[in-house]
User: Fold this.
Amino acid sequence: MNEAPPIIVGAGPAGSAAAILLLSNGIAPILYERQATPGDALCGGFLSWRTLERLQALGLAPGEASGHRVDRLRITAGTREWSGSLPAAAMGLSRRRLDSLLLDRARALGAEVRHAAVRHEEGAFRADDGRALRADSIFLATGKHDMRGLARRPRAAAGQNPFLGLRTRFAPPATMAAELAGTIEMHLFAGGYAGIVLQEDGSANLCLALRKRRLAEAGGDPLRLFDQLAGQPGPLGLRMAALPEQPRVDAIGQVPYGWYAGRGAPGLFRLGDQAGVIPSLAGEGIGIALASAELAVQHWLAVQHWLARGAGGAERFQKAMAARLRPRLALAQAITAAGVSARGGPWLARLAAIPGLSRGVAGWLRID
Ligand SMILES: Cc1cc2nc3c(=O)[nH]c(=O)nc-3n(C[C@H](O)[C@H](O)[C@H](O)COP(=O)(O)OP(=O)(O)OC[C@H]3O[C@@H](n4cnc5c(N)ncnc54)[C@H](O)[C@@H]3O)c2cc1C
Assistant:
């Protein structure tokens, strides 16, 4: 067995899930997280039915999250729209609530949580005090951006015209709240898309993913972009026009949609967005975070039992994870590219009406 406990860096969904699974198997990891309390991350307000199953398997009782139940999907592009039922019930839930629930569960099982930003320097992972972390295995769960000092993902990962994310939360007017009840809306427009879902407190989470160039066309000002979208005919225009004045907008840049870790490094298990970044339109990033934690812990445990000192476990895990991710990422990338093109959005809204197609695609985008 390892002398030093495994280390997990990042207490988002992937890191906390890995901690829960290790602890459930009698292994006590050390979990490093740079934030003192879970923040309300911009990304991940929609939890798919598969993600909900995984959360239950991690010990979260059904209903514990008390999120907003979502049964229907509505897709719009310009004045065209389609709506239909999802394959199973999903949920709108804030990231603050999700991350808190998972971290609390890890703590309840005995996780040791240290609040420090970890960086990679002089060939070692180091906490704030500069001391090297002693571990044979590191579970890297730090999200979509590179860790300071660690070999960068290829620059091309985010592309020439990368995606960025914008989010605002607001109290919807009564008519909008009634229309959004039980529904996730996906509005496609040239250069991006906007998802809207209600969350546990009745607030509406409006999250946009768009090409950098699209924001540049609005002078780099999110509020000007919102005004431009509010002027468009169709359901998105109506939603944007109903936003409060001067809403608070959170932003995240350079999202490397479609990137995945093809090869692993000895002892380094890349989880969640460090394993692969699926376009948010799929609503499966959190599912991937949880699935990668499950698979990584399975590989880590197998290696501990049968081989010496973690040899090969991380590399085998990363290869297996990449094989699961590749087809989902390719499909989500293709849908995203079509959906954000000027003509593609209306075509997708038309295709969505083919009986069974949307449900089939929605099901197929889930990670197994
Ligand atoms: C615009 C947008 C919308 C999205 N919407 C959805 C959605 O509705 N549904 C869905 O399923 N997915 C969605 N996603 C994807 C989803 O948010 C991510 O896939 C998911 O958050 C990945 O989880 P993670 O645990 O890997 O990383 P994160 O959630 O990013 O968590 C990383 C954690 O690591 C910590 N950390 C980072 N660096 C360090 C460090 N150096 N030291 C210590 N701690 C560190 C952070 O503070 C954080 O707590 C969306 C993505 C985008 C871009």
